[in-house]
Amino acid sequence: MSETKEPLFSKKNKKLISDPLNLNNPVTIQVLGICSALAVTVQMDNAIVMSIAVLFVLVMGNLIVSLMRNLIPSKIKIIVQLVIVAALVIIVDQVLKAYVYDVSKSLSVFVGLIITNCIIMGRLEAFALGNKPWASILDGVGNGLGYGLILVIVAFFKELFGSGSLLGIPVFGDPEGIDGPTGLFAMGYENNGLMLLPPSSLILVALYIWIQKKKTPSLIDENAS
Amino acid sequence: MSINKEGNVYTLIFAIVMVVVVGGLLAFIASSLKPLQEANVKNEKMQNILQAIGLEETAEVTRDEAGAIFNDYITERIVLDYEGNVISTKTNQDSIVPKDMTDAFNVEVRKYYNNLMRIEKKYEEGSEEFKAALKEKEITYPLFVCEKDGKKYFVTYFSGKGLWDDIWGYIAFKEDGKTINGTVFDHKGETPGLGSKITTEIFNRDFVNKVITNENNEYRPIRVIKPGKDREEYEVRGISGATFTAIGDGANMGVERMMERSLVVYQKYFSSLNSNSINKVPELIDTLSIDTMQMQIDTTAVLAIK
Question: ipTM, 2 decimals?
Fold first, then answer.
């Protein structure tokens, strides 16, 4: 092997992590994983644990598929990827149930739904199948973080304006205090019920895309009229 | 020798090997983690029962502690039928044997709530057919008796239907068998931030000291109503935006309906307890006086013979 060894964090590899955070964000640019961004963003703690779980599955899935990329028969590659992802998700679910029971309870069905998260299949198919293990791990980390970033940002606003709290801690006062409303609620402030529902995520993600594209004009699709 | 990776044989072998490896791995993981998971579920149930009692010292109990102190608080585990009759009783001396259905701890109310819904749709509640169907499906009602500092508490456990999936709850009553001392509600998959709020203190604290009987000691279900309205003494505050989970749809759904259909059974048991304790005293006097009379007659008889 005369090929010079690439440093672990070369410029190219760094880009694998930084790109998905902004320029190639899986949610806002690749438009993958929108569905769970709508569903698990009502509370910040759920969004954070969900991001970690997706990150884990994505990194492990990318690694395994990348290691096996020369072995997988192309006829059944989607099925093979599906089996790998499903197995990983079941492992995550079982381990959560055994060791961090409370977290697994608060996520309930969403852990199982990681299987259907399009980011994972998308990255396995688009990246891990054609790249080396280390690069695939970095790609998994990058995309997992990019996904988590959007999830946490959306959840921040949804929880703040929907429930008046952050990570479960009330910040605007207690609307249902024993002695009547306290804090901002005493002054007539009301939580926005729409913020708790999936449509508000779409609005927030759209606003995010707007800001993102305003800041980086190169992202704007030239063919769009 | 090169292998044809696109050939059918390779594909088939790859698929078989993959399934065997993944299946074996998952089976191994699942079976080796099972004891831990089961202990979690068991301890959580104990934790819920203890928390529902509403005592300060049990309110903050953690899941792991719950397993250790459960028997210190819960002295009896009783299984009731629909009429409120005791089917079986276990005390804290009896250990909990898994799958022993005469032990109230093993009565898994969440398992038969589907049957309960079906029976409810088919027959009128309280009718003979209804009771027969309950018996056939072996639907029973678990009750836990807690004794602390000379006071008794009764913890009930039941389940029902939420908006998306099942919901369940533990309600603890004071010694009088009608005043609520604490509640714990939980759910499987209610909407996060809306229906899932039935687990929060905001919802649960409103149940404390509500009474499930009217002035004549007849059963009167607790009503859950929309927040912001004035409430009667038997009405608790619902959750805004969670109409179906908390208040229900007027048919089978919701916390209110779940409580209504279960507490009616427990109330029968409680009222039988109360009537026993009230009637006991006069009965005792009656038998006593008869005995004394008998004795007097006997003495007179003896004297007469003399």
Answer: 0.71
